[in-house]
Write a structure and sequence with these properties.
It is built from eight helices and two strands, in the order ββαααααααα. The chain is mainly alpha-helical. Strands 1-2 form a two-stranded antiparallel sheet. A hairpin with a 2-residue loop joins strand 1 and strand 2. The chain is globular, with a radius of gyration of 19 Å.
Length: about 240
């Protein structure tokens, strides 16, 4: 059952969904502001991650709340904004993990693989339209390797990687909630539950983002060694498979 409220004569559909989108966008803007001075390498990609998610979730406000009053072309623009923001956030999360090691010629193939995946997602959106299920699939395919790399780094003692792996793991649960349509009722549906999990996910990720002074291309040898070992182990597992 669809819910709605009247505000100053304007009908807002799915008001809780629209409001939770707005809250997520504000949350991402706060984290973006916190990280924006750290624009190099790993910290810089997480800075861009939150900026992309701020745009994607802000687009969710009219996408859910005002879709019945928006002209078709405007609504399509909103859908594309949401999809592109989501795609950019996945790409930035991937690049942040790659940037945790000193990149060399061998790492270039992983960068190209991330770019290829983003292009496939965009191509699918052009062919099929900006659908939510494409976002769910792209997020799962794009973030599972990232979670694996961060989890391996966490096992080697990186507390920041532990927070990030946990946060991205929670983000995957949003897809399970969405596909399974797990809700708490008409006024807090499966999308709202997914949004609540996203808020937890963002909080965990920002706890793992590099602190001031830990970014840039000059990192302690121990950190570089752990990150290289994590990525090397993940690539080795993929090659064996």
């Amino acid at each position: 059952m669809e819910t709605w409220i009247e505000v100053a004569g304007l009908t807002i559909r799915s008001p809780v969904t629209a409001f939770t989108n707005l809250l997520l966008s504000v949350q991402c803007c706060v984290y973006w502001r916190r990280l924006r001075s750290r624009r190099a390498d790993r910290a810089g990609y997480w800075w861009l991650f939150f900026l992309a998610m701020a745009v994607a979730t802000l687009a969710g406000v009219p996408k859910h709340g005002l879709r019945h009053v928006l002209p078709a072309d405007v609504y399509l623009f909103v859908l594309w904004t949401s999809s592109l923001g989501s795609a950019a956030s996945v790409y930035c999360a991937q690049r942040a993990t790659l940037a945790s090691a000193a990149l060399n010629a061998g790492d270039g193939r992983l960068v190209r693989l991330c770019a290829l995946q983003a292009c496939v997602f965009l191509g699918a959106n052009v062919a099929l339209g900006p659908e939510m299920w494409l976002i769910v699939v792209h997020t799962a395919v794009g973030l599972i390797p990232v979670i694996g790399a961060e989890a391996l780094a966490a096992r080697r003692g990186s507390r920041r990687a532990m927070w990030i792996a946990g946060g991205l793991g929670v983000s995957l649960l949003t897809g399970v909630v969405y596909v399974g349509r797990l809700s708490l009722g008409a006024w807090f549906n499966h999308i709202d539950v997914a949004h609540a999990l996203m808020g937890v996910s963002f909080w965990l990720i920002v706890k793992g983002a590099p602190a001031a002074g830990s970014h840039g291309r000059t990192r302690p040898a121990e950190v570089r060694a752990r990150a290289k070992a994590s990525l090397g182990s993940l690539v080795g597992l993929q090659e064996q498979a």
